[in-house]
Amino acid sequence: xxxxxxKTAIITGGATGIGRATVQKFLEQGANVIFTDIxxxxxxxxxxxxxxxxxNVMFIKHDVQSEEDWALVVSEANDxxxxxxxxFNNAGxxxxxxxxxxxxxxxxxxxxxxxxxxxxxxxHVIPIMRNKESGSIINASSIAGLKGAPNxxxxxxxxxxxxxxxxxxxxxxxxxxxxxxxxxPGVIQTPMGDAVASGVKLTTEQLASHIPLKxxxxxxxxxxxxVFLASDESTFITGTEMVVDGGSSAR
Length: 251
Ligand SMILES: NC(=O)c1ccc[n+]([C@@H]2O[C@H](COP(=O)([O-])OP(=O)(O)OC[C@H]3O[C@@H](n4cnc5c(N)ncnc54)[C@H](O)[C@@H]3O)[C@@H](O)[C@H]2O)c1
Prior knowledge:
Elements: E1 8-12, H1 17-28, E2 32-37, H2 40-50, E3 57-61, H3 67-81, E4 86-89, H4 104-132, E5 135-140, H5 153-173, E6 178-185, H6 191-199, H7 204-209, H8 219-230, E7 241-244
Parallel strand pairs: 1-2, 1-4, 2-3, 4-5, 5-6, 6-7
Helix pairs in contact: 1-8, 3-4, 4-5
The chain binds nicotinamide-adenine-dinucleotide.
Residues 12-13, 15-19, 37-39, 62-65, 90-94, 113, 140, 142, 185, 187-188, 190-193, 196 line the site of nicotinamide-adenine-dinucleotide.
């Protein structure tokens, strides 16, 4: 039996990186997947490619900051499948520079995508999950939401907000058997991971040498955890923060 057989999932930011790897793993495990992204061209291309894994995949262009877009995505998913079992709030952007160089517009944009996007996703999906008295929500935070780092004030604040919001909502919806967990990747080899490496002016090899397991993470390292949290193997896990960082934050 496949681990996500019969489940319907919404995954944001699925055109590339961690989101794309997760869409693929979900399809391999039997889920119906509606994935979204603001980048329509990449989203459509990814969808065509992943149709080779399973026909049960659909792409919708979506800006996670837009409440109108969220209402549309959730109603399309619910109309098509009659249920939403999993929400992976994965879409996010990264930024790194000294605090005095940030503008208020940059602050609002980063918070809009990384925090408001997560809030809106939960707000719109929870009523559907509540009807079935079950569901799993996985929110992408980061080790930057657990530990401080220079030049990370905006990104770290956004990921810290995701961490605690996940725990708050977990407490709010536990009575309906809906679970909410945050995940905290270290540096993962994606377009964003490349931006992290160039922000600290290190090659990926140099960055890897600072990690106890001596490698960067792969998108599949994260996708495997998300499959576990989405599946019925984790039905006693909620309100927790799961770190996948090769040991970096254990120091
Ligand atoms: N890569 C890392 O090293 C790393 C580490 C820790 C946490 N994370 C988190 O994991 C998540 C995925 O990261 P990734 O490395 O795959 O990133 P990525 O940049 O490779 O991909 C992110 C995807 O989100 C999409 N996106 C951006 N803004 C959007 C919006 N407004 N609405 C909808 N989609 C939007 C992008 O088009 C892109 O396809 C992010 O939340 C990120 O903060 C990544």
